[in-house]
Design brief:
The protein is an alpha+beta fold and 282 residues long. It has helices spanning 2-35, 41-71, 83-91, 108-135, 148-159, and strands at 160-161, 172-174, 179-181, 185-188, 192-198, 201-206, 209-212, 233-235, 237-242, 246-254, 261-262, 269-270, 273-280. The strands form five sheets. Strands 2-9-5-6 form a four-stranded antiparallel beta sheet, with no helix packed on it. The protein has a three-stranded mixed beta sheet with strand order 1-4-7. Helix 1 runs antiparallel to helix 2, helix 1 (2-35) runs parallel beside helix 4 (108-135) and helix 2 (41-71) crosses helix 3 (83-91).
Amino acid sequence: MLRQFLLGTAVSVCNIAIHAMVMVAVVRVARGASERATSRQSLRLIAVMSATASVLMVAHLAEVLVWSFAYSFTSIAPPGTDLVYFAFVNYTTLGYGDVTPLEHWRLLGPLTAMNGMLLFGWSTAVIFEVLRRTMTAPRNEQEQPMGVIDWFKRGVGEMLIARPDDAKAHVVWKHPDPTIPMKAQLTVEADEKAVFFRDGKVVGTLSAGRHTLDTANIPFLSNLVDSFTGGNVFIAEVFFVTIRENAGIKFGGPVGHVERVRLDPDRATATVGVQGTAGAAG
């Protein structure tokens, strides 16, 4: 049993390394494509997603071949078995049952399936990230290179939406990302409301509480579903608006376009302005 775990772990780690290299390349290419934004977003989206899916399929094929190569060094299947086919069935968890592993190597089948499920899930996450980058391509600014930890933090940030602590004093705060995953958790504090905008119009509001963003729970979200993602993403601008009374809000500055007033021909000039404090309630 120990040698089965050792061989299965070694092959799994090899495939994870292969997948990691492919993922890095895919994300970098997607970042470059998003930075070269064009007016034909639909064509660019089709091209980027087609290329991404094709590269990922090739990566999974390579990982199946790695498993079949490992099988060739063991007597996992009866003589004459097509090991590539056997590895494919295990890796994709199809479980046809027409070929079964021999008893002394039978743990390699579940280990292959576990590796396949992990890498397919990873690929799905990367496809979503590439789609998000392509649909929200920056026009004037380039994003900084993002490491694995930063990428993970961004993913968590997309699923947990709330006003950050450093924006608590703002009367209105806008969530920076207009693409919101289905089932994301949105937290609204007791002294604020979340207002959803689409195409310059208010679509709906949410009061205090923790909300799971799903059309089954919140009907107005059905107007925000993005069809490109198969209904897995909402496209909206979310504003957090403070409804408590805000006292001591400072204001001030020059009055319109009034030019500087000359007090005396031989002395300095003065700028006409106004300043003070005010209060507001939502």
